[in-house]
Amino acid sequence: MTSKEELRSVASEIPLFNNIEQKETFLFVIGALFSRVISLKKAAEIMEIEPDVFLQLLDLMGLEFSYLTEQDIAIEKDW
């Protein structure tokens, strides 16, 4: 398990937010989103930003997010 000090160290490197709590929340939300525990809408709600803005943040960070499952993506590519 990652210690709180390690998490704060990683979070402090994220230049997108002003305080450490926002950075920690962002890391948590990213993990939950990509694990499909929460939706994009819920992730944006937790971060208190609009879903399209949250999606733009992910894009700016080079994180690809899709509503499709990996199987759906494969089907789309072969279409």
Q: Overview of this structure, please?
A:
The chain has helices at 4-12, 20-34, 40-47, 51-60, 70-78. It is mainly alpha-helical and 79 residues long. Helix 1 crosses helix 2 (20-34), helix 2 (20-34) runs antiparallel to helix 3 and helix 3 (40-47) crosses helix 4. The radius of gyration is 14 Å and the shape is elongated.
Mass-distribution shape: elongated
SS elements, strand count: 0
The SS-based structural class is: mainly alpha
Which percent bin holds the helix content? 55-70%
Q: Report the radius of gyration as a whole number of Å.
A: 14 Å
Q: In angstroms, what separates the terminal alpha carbons?
A: 42 Å
Low-confidence spans: pLDDT under 50, at least 5 residues? none
Short description:
With 79 residues, the chain is mostly helical. It is 65% helix and 0% strand. It has one domain.
Characteristics:
single chain; 79 residues; mainly alpha; 5 helices; 0% strand
Give the arrangement of secondary structure elements:
Blueprint (H helix, E strand, L loop, with lengths): L3 H9 L7 H15 L5 H8 L3 H10 L9 H9 L1
Helix pairs in contact: 1-2, 2-3, 3-4
